[in-house]
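Here is one chain, start to finish.
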Amino acid sequence: MGTRGKGRPVTAAPSSGTGAPDFSEAGEGAGAERAGRRLSGVTRGRAERRRTAQRAARRRRRSLFRELPLVVIVALVIALVLKTFFVQVFVIPSGSMEQTIQIGDRVLVDKLTPWFGNQPSRGEVVVFRDPGGWLENDRTVSNDGPVLHRVKQVFSSVGLLPSDNEHDLIKRVIGVGGDTVECCDAKGRLSVNGAPVDEAYLAPGNVPSRQAFKITVPAGRLWVMGDHRDLSADSRSHMANPGGGTIPVGNVVGRAVVIAWPLPRLGRLDVPGSLSSLPTRTPAASAAGTAGPIESSGGFGTAGPDPAEPSLVMGVLGALPFVVRRGQAGRRQSRRSG
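Its structure:
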């Protein structure tokens, strides 16, 4: 007979002795199995994420080592460009510009404006290359071997070391081409084009000059003097040289604009109005007049590149965005791969 309309047989569950079916052992077994699977999955997930993070860290380290030489090259190039065309720091080793600039001061020198044809003006403090014969006693012969010499050349080119071939000085411009500079008048004052100059910037106890002189500055040249006149071996000490003690405008490295260090002396190097307001004259084509050399107590006021050249620091800062962008790209790639 068929079974249509009849109920299907039901298999009785094992009894626990209370008359009710007993599902406890089967339920506990299934739950333990599911929990084991979940725990195993969590453990495998954590281990996989840990391995992925380790692989990403290794890739970042390898990437950093590969990119480090490129970062160094970029920083050096930026430092070289800044040092050559924009600004350079010079350290002052002598007292020829006291009290305006003291021994150990670091000054920022503007090297950009001369590229646009800006000429030094009266009253400006300028750094210039030795025109010849000013620093003969300060020149030293290098005993470095060829390898060390080349390394020093590379470092000096970016301002990390002073160059053996660079002999720079720092003075104040007193006369430009066409000016007649004379000292001293009846009141002991220096005059430019017949106008007396109030030199409030002189070191205490110094007079404008302890010996008389008079010179007409040739075209394209400058008459420079230190603010510590009793110590400064400036244009007055080289009047017997070609040019009568004047220096070529082309030897000017740049204008010193700021005392950058130490911080208590931080400030601008302003141009005194007593010099900047004087009338100008047409430069004479004749050679400079000479009045003979005068005595000096030394103090050339040499200015050397600062070994802690901030152009390199700025170069490193300029390379940082490149490093940061590369690092961010690496992290995004690691997150995608994880």
